[in-house]
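User: tokens in, sequence out, please.
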């Protein structure tokens, strides 16, 4: 009798652990493992004139900028086409905005 009771307790314990693990997993953001977004205020981003919206580039401050240049047309951009935030060879460990720009922009071939 006590052995049967112990087995039932063990099964309850397993069910609780599995349920708790599922609950923890379900409250994590979908991209919990994704690198953080690059902030324009990041020191390296500032040094390279990064913005997450190419349309906001100050053409006087960055005379190499031409309309139409953006991360999605830059050869340094990695990741999957169509993703709004993607890895960049220049900013390791961060994601840049596909609509962003920095002065390292080089036309994708
Ligand atoms: S190097 Fe290219 S992809 Fe990377 S932030 Fe600058 S413009 Fe965007």
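Assistant: Sequence out:
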């Amino acid at each position: 009798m006590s052995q049967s009771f112990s087995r039932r307790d063990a099964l309850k314990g397993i069910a609780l652990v599995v349920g708790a693990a599922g609950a923890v997993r379900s409250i994590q953001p979908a991209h919990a493992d994704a690198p953080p977004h690059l902030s324009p205020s990041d020191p390296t981003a500032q040094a390279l004139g990064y913005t997450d919206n190419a349309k906001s580039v100050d053409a006087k401050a960055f005379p190499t900028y031409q309309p139409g240049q953006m991360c999605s047309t830059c050869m340094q951009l990695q990741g999957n086409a169509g993703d709004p935030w993607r890895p960049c060879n220049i900013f390791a460990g961060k994601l840049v905005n596909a609509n962003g720009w920095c002065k390292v922009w080089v036309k994708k071939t």
